[in-house]
Design a protein that fits this description.
- Helix content is about 60%, strand content about 15%.
- The chain has helices at about 5, 15-20, 25-35, 35-40, 60-75; strands spanning about 45-50, 55-60.
- It is elongated.
- The model has no long low-confidence stretch (mean pLDDT about 90).
Length: about 80
């Protein structure tokens, strides 16, 4: 098995996805937690710091928007 394949997170169980589509809040929370790191990474912005440097930090408003879009996509998901 390649090194890249070994670092992949485990897949979500089908039952969790099925329950989330049906509206189970606990299952939706599991899916949001599963993609939490990805959404944090995608919400990063460049901020300028004193002295001319820059730093990448997550923007909470962007992350919240990504969470909302994920939950909406879960509700529309067809099995």
């Amino acid at each position: 098995m390649s090194e890249r394949m070994e670092k992949r997170p485990p897949l979500l169980p089908f039952q969790t996805i099925k329950d989330a589509v049906a509206g189970d809040p606990a299952s939706v929370a599991v899916i949001v937690r599963h993609f939490g790191g990805y959404m944090t990474r995608m919400s990063e912005r460049v901020y300028l710091v004193y002295g001319g440097g820059s730093v990448m930090l997550p923007d909470p408003e962007i992350r919240d928007e990504l969470v909302i879009r994920l939950i909406e996509a879960i509700r529309k998901f067809k099995l």
